[in-house]
């Protein structure tokens, strides 16, 4: 946004944790990877869009073992795109596609087949996307986003990150949302296990993700959430994140030397 990369360090730290879980050795130290991403953004002259990057075991053969790969490979690309606040609500469904096991769900990786099938299932049913429910009956996440709820008691609740991806934007929202508690608009902010019944009884519901940053959800499995309209507190949270993206502290916004 503007001349800044939002939440680069948080995303890069998660990237490195995921690489460690996947047992992929870094081709460069963290500082070099960070410098590459900032320099790439500057060279692109793109001031609005997304920065995407990948790490692989590197060139080799078509076997499963990476033993013959001489070195890991780092790829990055800047994609120009218009970024704006989402103000219209969407419909979602409960996904019947099995979600990833915790080992894979908690690391950022390119195994997106379950995510893709989940999105396609939702689109086939006229919905925007879907919600995964874990084997214990608790709300998990969306296809590549976190999900959050505002209860009728004005509590902001996000599902625990124990078995799902710890979204950088979701974690930042948990840091920002207490501002609404101080204003008396929210009662509390927390992560917790939520059943489907509890979640569908929420006053407001939303997706949270780095490209959204918040997308209101107004209907789930043809069941209206709250009054079936975009909630005021959802938009207040969206405003908090949006302001943080465009004018927040430099600890979360990295200046790009264009």
TrEMBL record:
Keywords: Pyridoxal phosphate. Its cofactor is pyridoxal 5'-phosphate. It comes from the Eukaryota. Belongs to the class-IV pyridoxal-phosphate-dependent aminotransferase family. This is Uncharacterized protein. One of its GO terms (biological process) is amino acid biosynthetic process. Pfam families: Aminotran_4.
């Amino acid at each position: 946004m503007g001349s800044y990369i939002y939440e680069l360090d948080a995303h890069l730290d998660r990237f490195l944790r995921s690489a460690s879980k996947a047992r992929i050795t870094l081709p460069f130290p963290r500082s070099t990877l960070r410098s590459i991403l900032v320099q790439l953004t500057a060279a692109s002259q793109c001031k609005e869009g997304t920065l995407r990057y990948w790490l692989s075991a590197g060139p080799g053969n078509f076997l499963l073992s990476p033993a013959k790969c001489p070195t890991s490979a780092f790829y990055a690309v800047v994609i120009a795109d218009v970024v704006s606040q989402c103000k219209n609500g969407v419909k979602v469904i409960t996904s019947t596609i099995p979600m990833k096991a915790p080992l894979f769900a908690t690391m950022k990786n390119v195994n997106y087949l379950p995510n893709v099938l989940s999105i396609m299932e939702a689109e086939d049913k006229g919905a925007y996307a879907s919600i995964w429910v874990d084997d214990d009956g608790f709300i998990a996440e969306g296809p590549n986003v976190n999900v959050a709820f505002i209860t009728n008691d004005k509590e902001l609740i996000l599902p625990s990150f124990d078995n799902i991806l710890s979204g950088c934007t979701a974690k930042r929202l948990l840091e920002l949302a207490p501002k609404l508690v101080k204003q008396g608009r929210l009662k509390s902010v927390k992560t917790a296990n939520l059943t489907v019944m509890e979640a569908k009884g929420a006053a407001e519901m939303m997706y949270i993700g780095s490209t959204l940053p918040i997308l209101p959800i107004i209907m789930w499995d043809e069941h209206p959430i709250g009054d079936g309209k975009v909630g005021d507190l959802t938009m207040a949270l969206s405003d908090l994140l949006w302001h943080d993206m465009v004018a927040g502290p430099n600890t979360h916004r990295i200046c790009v030397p264009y």
